[in-house]
Design goal:
Shape: flat
Strand content: under 5%
Number of helices: 7
Structural class: mainly alpha
Distance between the termini: 76 Å
Radius of gyration: 36 Å
Largest sheet: 2 strands, antiparallel
Helix content: 40-55%
Length: 175
């Protein structure tokens, strides 16, 4: 018996053990690989759902006035009167903070909108003959490795090849 025959017999024994284990569990050899995959996927989904924090789901679909579901659902009772607001607290420091949906919030005037701040002046650099993006980044930005950032901001001016920076081009420098 050669070494390969020995390995083949070990493989066959392992397959027989797996079939025996399936038979012991009641799954049997008739169970397909697709069913195994489906049950594994289902089990994984259940574990993920159990571990996930609860989030409010979408609201249930509201039946339309002409749908059969609308006719089967009784109308919700309407409140007879609006509930009265609780009297304000007289304790110091117990001020009410208006919520976006409260009447108090709507009564509070909006904060005044000031003039927008002028944008900081953009720094520019005019390319000289023999300049490279790495050299410009090293000189103007203090780090040659920032040439990619410089190229990303000025791709329209430089073009598709970052190695060919046209002399006289005005580049915008990142902040």
């Amino acid at each position: 018996m050669g070494i390969f025959d020995f390995l083949k017999s070990d493989k066959k024994k392992a397959q027989e053990q797996v079939q025996q284990q399936r038979a012991d569990k009641g799954t049997g050899p008739a169970r397909s690989a697709a069913a195994d995959a489906a049950s594994a996927t289902r089990a994984a989904a259940e574990r993920m759902a159990a571990a996930a924090p609860l989030r409010p789901g979408p609201a249930p679909a509201t039946p339309t006035p002409r749908s059969a579901a609308h006719k089967a659902v009784p109308a919700p009772p309407r409140p007879a009167a609006m509930p009265k607001a609780a009297p304000p607290s007289t304790r110091p420091g117990a001020a009410h903070t208006p919520t976006p949906h409260s009447a108090a919030h709507k009564a509070v005037p909006a904060a005044p909108v000031g003039k927008p701040q002028p944008a900081a002046e953009k720094r520019t650099y005019t390319v000289k003959p023999g300049d490279t993006l790495a050299a410009i980044a090293g000189r103007e930005l203090g780090n040659e490795a920032r040439w990619r950032e410089l190229y990303a901001m000025n791709r329209a001016v430089i073009g598709a090849n970052p190695d060919l920076v046209p002399p006289g081009a005005v580049l915008t420098l990142p902040g």
